[in-house]
Specification:
- It is a single chain.
- This protein is an all-alpha fold.
- It has 13 helices and no strands.
- The C terminus is likely disordered.
Amino acid sequence: MDLDVFVYAHQAEWDRLDALTSRRRRLNGAETDELITLYQRTATHLSLIQSSAPDPQLTGRLSRLVARARSAVTGTRRASWRDAAHFLSHGFPAAVYRTRHWWVPTALVSTAVAILLGWWIGTHPEVRATIAAPAHLRELTRPGGEYETYYSSHPAASFAAQVWTNNAQATALCLVLGVFLGLPVLWILFQNMLNLGVGFGLMSSAGRLDTFLGLVLPHGLLELTAVFVAAGTGLRLGWTVIDPGPRSRRTALAEEGRAAVGMAIGLALVLFVSGAIEGFVTPSGLPTWTRVGIGIAAELAFLTYVYVLGGRAVRAGETGDLLAAERSSTVPTAA
């Protein structure tokens, strides 16, 4: 395509569109129809230039013009409490439900890895010797030792806030770094399972596995589920880079990336709940069965939320992405 000839042929249309979108007064019916027609044509021109003769300066100019025209056509929209309610009742659970074929296997494999690591550490004294000196290991695992006092070493509110911040950062990294073919996600996931396996193995070797589970399960079920969801979504995003399916790679990454960002917000709320349990319930004087029961109830509530509300939303066409009216306009290009 001869770019100079193309610009010469359509310059008047772009100038007219610029003039219509710059007007402060209300457009009449004929001008509104003209604005919509010119907006559609200019969007097509922009797509053709991007695919056939990319020019940074012209592309930038037309992108700004198309964005301004689209705003004039669709009008501005402000977020409201209704948007937040829709996100929590439809968008977030639908996004989690859609990725269940990724995060459920991730959870099963990761849990198996943690158990195997724990068994290996717990049954092999030579492995434990590489972790720390025997005296230090006894200090960690004895009644009233560091594994137990860890959860009550700081005021509950500040400890819950610290735990929430750390876990939210880990899940956000899983979601963001998934675009790098999922490799950083596997490393983050392994680090989490290694830490869990070490605690499992050391406490079991000291004959105190029941105490360890009583400390971990109240908050750990929901916390680890959030990590598994983030990791599974990150791996799915990495696979999208390799195999975008029938969509273009750019479109697929945009759609899955927007859904992943929404999931980061939703998972931050889930981790807030698990952090509150870890800060206030885990170190409390409640009986072990009560603390574990609270953790199981929170986990079942989240799974019910995902599979009932999320499944219903997905069957209704929800994907967890932005609503169609909020996405950037796309126009077909030549195959």
